[in-house]
Amino acid sequence: MTTETETREALSKRVSKLITRTIQRNIKGVEYFASAAPPVGLTPKETIYKRGTLKLYHYHAQTDEIYRVPILIVMATTNRAYVMDIAPGGSLVEFLVKSGYDVFVMDWDPPRPEEKNLGLEDYTQDFIPACLDRIRMETGEDDVTVIGYCMGGVLSVIYGATHPDGPMKNLVCFTTPINWHEMGLFNAWSDKNSLDVDRLVDMVGVVPADMIMTAFDMLRPASGITNRIDLWDNLWNDQFVESYRKFDRWANEGLPLPGEYFRQVTRELMWGNKLYTGELTVGGKNANLANIKVPLLHAVAEHDHIIQRKASAPLVELAGSSDKEELVLKGGHISLVAGPNAVRRLWPKLDDWLSKRSV
Amino acid sequence: MGTEEFAKTANAASAVQMRVQKGVNSHMARQLAMFNMPSREDINALAERVMTMDERLVRIEAMLQRIAPVAPEPNSARPPRTKKPVGDQNK
Predict the structure, then answer these.
(1) For chain B, which terminus, N or C, has the lower number of CB atoms within 10 Å?
(2) Which chain B residues are closer than 8 Å to A203 by Cβ?
(3) How many Cα atoms within 13 Å fall on the side-chain side of residue A161?
(4) Is residue A1's pLDDT more than 60?
(5) How far apart are CA A297 and CA A313, in angstroms?
């Protein structure tokens, strides 16, 4: 008798929970579509330099004293930098600022049609040095730690390899591709026999964001559907929905790429694999990874579906630094740097590595 | 999806899409010219000239900075750059 009563109570609780969640889902579902996009990039900052597609932010210090060496984060050219400051408590920038670092971030606006001729040389021999100059003017410090994420890591690596005399003091890369012949499906899609990159670039000038985002989406064609199922399942949970919307906004807010840059990346890196072979020349300088002598940390994700381990692993092998380390962490391309996984896994290790090299 | 056929089809579809877009732009430019209005290309040409001036200013600014470097502004509100790693703080 008791067992029967308990079973009935348990069933009643489950039905009640199901009904409550269904009602909550419906109410919150309406809210979801009716409300404005959630705010992102909330850590206080100011834009100290702006030039065409490039923007340089300086985040306000939040501690009584800060480390001597400032940090410059170079964002990937395909996406907005606010993934580094996605939400209070889940923001890498906020974490660094609260840990006592002086943080600068290079962000990108969509390149305008007249910027179609920007190439690797502009990004690595002009934009990064210009930002480093600004940081020196702002802080009075000659040394800077450069942190590059994904394609921002590639730009940072090329900068470092072509500027062995500084002012870069430390280099941190997150999930940065070096062996471009190990880029999986990207290799198949951009095969010389299939992709006429010159015709494409000459036709469009600036390569539309849709085209680039479609390539990323096709890496995991089912993820759109499974993500929506996850959302529906968790629609009653405000915290989940807020986080989902922020990451969804970021993932859908891709940036177009200057045609010349796209052409160079395709020809020199994807087809020629010149960053890996050491043959890459940018602005008349050889970007051989052996030229990088500064302390190097490369954090990569075990389950990164965009930059696979075989593509990113050679960075630490090929860099000329004596102080170098590869950090392999659980997670994916984005969860490596932002969100709850990053809070637990990457950030404490990053702080530990940086703090010793920032005085 | 990793096959050559898929890549060829996907790239061909992108090329067609771009060509259609270019055709629409060109048609629109003719219509705008008829109404004596600037086309996207006219605006881009102007923007390109502004960008050239912008780049020139950047170069002049960099040159001035080399000739007469500006020292960082003393700002008492900024915290001192004296922080040490946790393990070193007692040294």
Answers:
(1) C
(2) 15, 18-19, 22
(3) 28
(4) no
(5) 12
